[in-house]
Amino acid sequence: MDLKKHLDRAEQALARGQADFAIELCDQVLDFAPGDAQAAGLLGRALLSLEKKKGLLGRIGAGPSSLGARISRLARNPDAEARQLRRAFIKNPASLATGASWADALERAGYAGAALEAFGALAHQDGEAAKRASALAAAQGEIDRALEYLEIALKTNPRDTEAVRLRKNLAAEQALQTKRYDEAGSAADVAYDPDAFMRASRGEDSPPKEAEEGAEE
């Protein structure tokens, strides 16, 4: 299979408004190469363009694949789980939760690039997906992109204190990497905590408050 040719055709189809054809092509690529980042991102965008066209039949159609995904998760087979969730998302693209679960399974299966693109496709409609995309981008060294996703999360919810804190940490990391210290908000910004960033982005517990206070002194 010529993956590039398939994906080029899918991009062109989506640009012409032929989302169904784009979805079919991306699905074929992902059956062959489940970790293809471009295919994952393009599939996500194509599915979201169909979001309002699916209803009860979509939810019913997604049922068997969702069940298969749960069985695969119990069997600790994230690769199979991701495949089943992708099929469920195709059947019911109105379910952002299914899309996010697919992206999460991709990450657990070791397809970090594909997970980033899948979460990125969801980012404008789901603040939590935007934060997950930011964490993956940061882990892959794409700090500018990680910051962009946090800005998207804050547009979705300006009161998201976690996103504000993560953005502060990343801005400090960016300043350190580029030695543009004047871009950091304060000396405290420069003393960022990348471990805390990664813990928070994954929803893990933060370190004790006393430890945070000690780091600030």
The outline comes out as: globular
Q: What radius of gyration results from the CA coordinates?
A: 19 Å
| Uncertain residue segments | 181-194, 208-217
Note the run of SSEs as H and E.
Answer: HHHHHHHHHHHHH
Count all strands and give the number. 0
The percentage helix is: over 70%
Q: What portion of residues belong to β-strands?
A: under 5%
Largest beta-sheet details: none
Tally of contiguous helical segments:
13
In CATH terms, what is the architecture of the largest domain? Alpha Horseshoe
Structural class: mainly alpha
- Tell me, what is the CATH class of the largest domain? Mainly Alpha
Briefly note the CATH topology name of the largest domain: Serine Threonine Protein Phosphatase 5, Tetratricopeptide repeat
Number of domains: 2
Distance between the termini: 58 Å
What does this molecule look like?
Helix 3 packs parallel to helix 7 (112-122). The longest helix has 19 residues, at 56-74. The protein folds into two domains: 1-122, Serine Threonine Protein Phosphatase 5, Tetratricopeptide repeat; 128-217, no CATH class. It has 13 helices and no strands. It has helices spanning 3-15, 19-32, 37-49, 56-74, 78-91, 96-108, 112-122, 127-139, 143-156, 161-178, 187-190, 194-201, 209-216.
